[in-house]
Amino acid sequence: MAMKPFTIQDASELYGVKEWGDGYFGINSKGHLEVYPTQDENLCADVYEIVQHVRKKGIHTPLILRFPQILANRVQEINEAFRKAIKESEYEGDYQGVFPVKTNQMKEVVEQVVKSGYKYRYGLEAGSKPELMIALSMNLHAEALILCNGYKDENFIRMALLAKKAGRNVLITVEKMTELPLILKVAKELKVEPLIGLRAKLSAAGAGKWESSAGDHAKFGLTTREILDAIEVLEKRGMLDSIIELHFHLGSQITDIRRVKAALKEATRLYAKLRKMGVPLQYLNVGGGLGVDYDGSRTTFSSSMNYTVQEYASDVMWTTKDICTQEQVPMPNILSESGRAIVAFHQVVVADIIGLIDTTYSKYSVVLTGQEPQIIKDLAYTRDAISVKNFSEMYHDAITQKDELLTLFNLGYLSLEDRSKGETIFWEVCRKLSRILSYKSLKYIPEEFQDLNKSLADKLIANFSVFQSMPDHWAIDQLFPAMPVHRLKEKPTLSTTLCDITCDSDGKVDKFIDLKDVRDELPLHEPKPGEPYYIAFFLTGAYQDTLGMRHNLFGTPNEAHIIVNEDEDFRIQQIVPAQTIDDVLRSVHYDPDVLIQGPSRKVKRTETDATEALRALLSEQRKLHTYLEM
Q1: What is the pTM of this model?
Q2: Could you state, in order of their start, the residue ranges of all structural domains in the chain?
Q3: How many CA atoms lie within 13 A of 175 on its CB side?
Q4: 126 strand-pairing partners
Q5: Short-list 189, 111, 134, CA closest to 157
Q6: Mind listing the pLDDT tens digit for each residue in 377-394?
Q7: What is the mean pLDDT of the segment spanning 72-82?
Q8: H-type helices in 369-499, by residue range?
Q9: In sequence order, what are the residues at sequence separation of 6 or more whose Cβ sits closer than 8 angstroms to the Cβ of residue 213?
Q10: CA distances (Å), 443 to each of 363, 433, 450, in order?
Q11: Phi and psi angles of residue 176, each rounded to the nearest 5 degrees, phi first
Q12: Residue percentage of the chain with pLDDT more than 90
């Protein structure tokens, strides 16, 4: 019976593109990855062709592809979702979004968000003095807000209040009580009326990796007693009108919508009680936390979320309205600080596969002569006899035999050739067992075999650094979708994990998305000699750029900013070159001019032709980027 051909639909299901892609990515008839920056399939571009086009211009992988149109689309989607929720719930307040600069501080990203959000009066949130400088430099709408969150010193507060005096809508959120006297001191000195927000430390907890950001022991925020103390201080100074915002934050990547609603009920009740006390609050800031469905499972798993953007917006409005109606207080204008949901989708990291590490002898076979030691013959018998009826017993025999093989080798009774034969046969046993375990007739697979496929997975070497391009995968086990950019009409023949090119055993990707579980391997194609094989990592636009580190002095990769036009065409809006060897050496305080001269010695060195050639090579190499050029 002929095997059913592998189709692009099979590829889409295998890699879950439809689920995590959210309408931004798909596969075209050529078997290439395709991008739809406005979620409209009529406006698309072939990602493989983009990579090839950029490579012809001398821009090598690893490569960050940014799609500014996706940023614009995300800003629009979130703002329109709140507009729709206001209309459907007949909410009597307004909505304004604020983008937290910390999510992605890259100039091109912030400028695109500001440009796309101008008509929505979209603002910015700054958590440090450099971020505040960025926010103040942007061409924001006159009614847009600039929020100052996080811990602040006097200089931070002075910057914010001078900007307020200069006519900017700068609102300072009080995170701890010691900030309030500083705000009042500087405001008096500058003769400016501050705009103040109070961050509440709610009892409601978040959900997911960052659930400790909220709750009684959260790092930021004021307790109920401290909120009352702050109000008393301001009331005595006749400055109660300065308090215009109540703020809370559940943490990043909230996975469960029920946690959002629980926090909203508590925060809105607090807002209502403060309004009844005469505090003229105008805004209820629901913070960030709007999630991204990295694995497409629509669950409460840490790399997913069990709600949509529209559901989130609707629940915010309905819950706030319900509590305010009960308490008979005016409905506040809603602020939100969604960052991850704005920027995650717009960025794709593309790397090329440059090699394969064969740890299971998959490329070798053994021909027995009959003259081998008995232990080799025993392993060969196990390999030939293992079946669906006896696989557990035979596998245990194989493990025992492998241990005996190593013992005999260490005692000097086996040759290196004998050891190689025995190890090769052992892995043949494991591969045969893996095929047996895949039989549909098996109703139960013992727990001891659960990690077998992981041990058999091929290790492909990808020309990039996990620590630079996806630090959250290394640091907090964040899952990012991954798949090939091309050859998607071919059935993958390898089950793989990925190694980066750093000299670090943690420089690997060995956990992958799956709709039902976390996969230990990624199906990929065997690279063809002389042909590039590209894989891509998706949804990397939030936090990864500035959290990326220079491990092994691998710098930032090349960037290409792509605008998709009609008729499946595209243009390169901007190229941001990768950091060179010169750049990264200077970043750790070396002067490349001095390094090229070599070590200084009191005794005069003998200059040779090789020395001069080395200096010439070093001088040339310092201009190159830090990744491998294959």
Answers
A1: 0.90
A2: 8-57, 92-338, 581-621
A3: 15
A4: 148
A5: 189
A6: 999 999 999 988 888 898
A7: 98
A8: 374-385, 391-410, 416-437, 452-456, 466-469, 471-476
A9: 206, 219, 220, 249, 250, 251, 252
A10: 31, 15, 14
A11: -145, 155
A12: 74
The distance between the two most distant Cα atoms of the chain, rounded to a whole number of Å, is 99
Please tell me the distance from the alpha carbon of residue 526 to that of residue 495, in angstroms, as a whole number: 10
Kindly indicate whether the domain formed by 92-338 is annotated with CATH number 3.20.20.10: yes
Q: Token digits for 96? A: 């304004």
H, E, C per residue of 541-561: CCCHHHHCCCHHHCCCCEEEE
Six token digits for residue 471: 């630090």
Retrieve residue 207's tokens.
Answer: 């959900």
First to last CA, the chain: 41
- Angle among Cα 83, 88, 90 to the nearest 5 degrees reads 90
- Would you give the DSSP letter of residue 41? T
Work out the number of other CB atoms within 10 angstroms of the CB of residue 598.
12
Give the integer Cα–Cα distance in Å for 152 and 604. 55
pLDDT band per the 50, 70, 90 thresholds, residue 448: confident
Report the alpha-carbon distance of residue 556 to residue 577 in Å, rounded.
9
3-state secondary structure 315-340: HHHHHHHHHHHHHCCCCCEEEECCCH
| Mean pLDDT along residues 448-460 | 78
Q: Which two tokens stand for residue 108?
A: 């091109």
**How far is the CA of 245 from the CAs of 76, 194, 210, 457, in angstroms?**
24, 12, 24, 53
How much of the chain exceeds pLDDT 70, in percent?
94
> Residue 101: which of 125, 78, 121, 123 has the closest Cα?
125
The rounded distance, in Å, linking the Cα atoms of 3 and 6 is 9
CA separation for the pair 549, 12 (Å, rounded): 33
Given pLDDT bands bounded at 50, 70 and 90, which one contains residue 85? Answer: very high
577 upstream amide cis, omega within 30 of 0: no
What does the angle CA 165 – CA 171 – CA 174 come to, to the nearest 5 degrees?
120
CA-closest candidate to residue 77, choices 23, 139, 20, 141: 23
Q: What are residue 447's phi and psi, to 5 degrees?
A: -60, -30
Give the ranges where 237-373 is alpha helix by DSSP (H): 257-276, 309-327, 340-343
Q: Are 309 and 77 in contact (CB under 8 A)?
A: yes
Q: Give residue 1's pLDDT.
A: 47
CA distance 171 to 194: 7
Q: Phi, psi (5° rounding) for residue 352?
A: -105, 145
